[in-house]
Design a protein that fits this description.
4-stranded antiparallel beta sheet; 17 strands; alpha+beta; 399 residues; Chorismate synthase, AroC fold
Amino acid sequence: MLTYLTAGESHGPQLTAIVDGFPAGFKVDINRINFQLARRQKGYGRGGRMKIESDRVEVVSGIRHSVTLGSPITLVIHNKDWPNWTGIMDPIKPMSDDLGVKEQQLAKETTRPRPGHADLAGGVKFNHKDLRNVLERASARETAIRVAVGALARQLLEHFQVQFASHVVRIGPVALPAAPAPDDLSEFNERVELSEVRCADKSTEEKMIAAIKAARKERDSLGGIAEVIVRGLPIGLGSYSQGYRRLDGRLAAALMSIPSVKGVEIGLGIEAAARRGSEVHDEIFHNQKGDRRKKGYYRNTNNAGGLEGGITNGEDLILRVAAKPISTLNKPLKTVDVISHEPSEAMVERTDNCVIPALGIIGEAVVALVLADAFLEKYGADNLSEIERNYNAYLNTPF
């Protein structure tokens, strides 16, 4: 129902997304999209690129006077670093012979693939010896435009009282002690945003920052885990009828598509494999009264993480996403030059040494896109008024 494509290189003129299937009649708040872009750029451990860019989205099509038309929406983020790279990245003109010293160095280093990056595999696949042809698109810079698209989808879901939150639960060896989902997501979000590493616990935050500092001192990088929480989803999004329609599979695929991500857990996740069924499955209760979270069917535990049989069950959606350390190291690993095949050291690009504080924001965005797609499958997709009617009728249907 809701599809999108992104385009653009890390150091090219711009990043672009075309979104198709977004309903007509929805008033978009561009400031809220830019707010999500700003969130993505924050966090202890980020590198010099974040000091150059100040991402803001430009709408090129599909929205008129802030209201969606139902036609394809085109979003653009201009790369402020582009003027420094025109000699290397110009789409038409050949590379100039009179590059500056810095540009010459950048242009020469792209035959030494980095272990852990797409450099070598992408170079072999597309027959590129100049690995900049690979690394520019494989870069996590692409996630900026995905956050913009996800922020659009998020606004649609928030119109129907769906709430989003995320926080960091591990950086390197430092882990946040396990705790239930917070009662007040708004207050929780405020607390998380005050943390340099987006960790809700102050003492754990300090240990995480110390771990990042130690890795940076040794010119190394750190990975970690972020948790995404979505509250207010109705029962019934997704389906068990076909494997590709199961929402847990769709969510896992979206999260695994984020650069550096190597693992996804839903609810209890891998821990469920070590327990008995009586310790895992969430007992079902029913209440005719109470607030939205405790009216109708509800659970006192949420080991399933809000999904059963590929369908939302009305509880909080709980997703954890694990990312490996960044593969560009200022203490480069051993590699082989793709031209000479001689042993060498991996190339070094400007880089972060820990991106986990941004991982949750990117996770929120891709999760919002999957959920918005499932929401439109269930309640219609042409225009907001129709969706509202169908949604309210569904909620008011007794079961």
